[in-house]
Amino acid sequence: MTAFSQLSGTIAERIHCIRQTLPDSVRLIAVTKQVSVAAMREAYAAGVRDFAENRVQEAEVKQVQLHDLTDVTWHLIGHLQSNKVQKALDCFQWIHSIDDLKLAQRLNHLAAQRSQKLQALLQVKLLPDPNKYGWSAADLLRDLSALSHCENLSIQGLMTILPYGLAAADATVAFQKTAELANTIRQQNLPHLQMQALSMGMSNDYALAVQSGATMIRLGRILFGDRQA
Ligand SMILES: *Cc1c(COP(=O)(O)O)cnc(C)c1O
User: How many domains does the chain have?
Assistant: First the structure.
């Protein structure tokens, strides 16, 4: 994995630099796990309005400290345990990490009770990776009709995380396959499955992801530096 311990410039300068390379249609999401609220305020001042966390509890604490930033959208990108679903609905407008049908149905059920509509992405895993959650393509196609009954989920598209250390060519293939899967699903025209969004690309592979059609990129270390292991 590339190290990001010696980044140059301020957080704002890094954000501006990266923005310049992105088409307007790509949403830059700042991944703020283990990042201080002071650094998050710097990102906000530089125009970032999307923060992503991988743990519900960390987001809860930060949202109290950042309650004055009322126009921020919060994204959950980490695996969600079923006992945290209610809290996740309190904290996040978007959940990228819906990784199986049971979780989707539970989120839908609780969102309905709260008369809430959740922006949802389905996490897929198109390459074998023991460390990552997500649907295989075949399993997702099997579950589509059940997902289309989740009326309180506005399923915007797919999210993927590639295994670490892939060669650029292999990463590109995996991103393209994810985009193709989204296309295949979109052509089925199922209710509640928009499939326009592709959340893919992190600090070390976002440029490849954008070339393959990413509409949301999730950047942590390239903005804020390396995290504690
Ligand atoms: C941590 C994380 C990121 C950001 O990774 P960086 O390498 O720091 O850019 C993106 N997506 C998910 C799901 C993550 O957990």
Answer: 1
Cα(78) to ligand 1 centroid in Å equals: 9
Q: Is residue 229 part of a domain?
A: no
For ligand 1, pick from 2, 58, 76, 77 the residue to mutate: most ligand atoms within 8 Å of CB. Answer: 77
Domain span holding position 30: 4-224
In-domain check, residue 135: yes
DSSP 3-state percent helix, strand, coil across the chain (nearest 5) = 40, 20, 40
pLDDT in tens, 177-207: 999 999 999 999 999 899 999 999 999 999 9
How many CA atoms within 13 Å lie on the side-chain side of 87?
13
State which ligand 1 atom lies nearest to the alpha carbon of 1. Answer: 7
Q: How far apart are CA 106 and CA 99, in angstroms?
A: 12
Q: Is 204 part of any domain?
A: yes
- Residue-wise pLDDT tens digits, 15-46: 999 999 999 999 999 999 999 999 999 999 99
pLDDT digit string, tens, across residues 100-142: 999 999 999 999 999 999 999 999 999 988 778 999 999 999 9
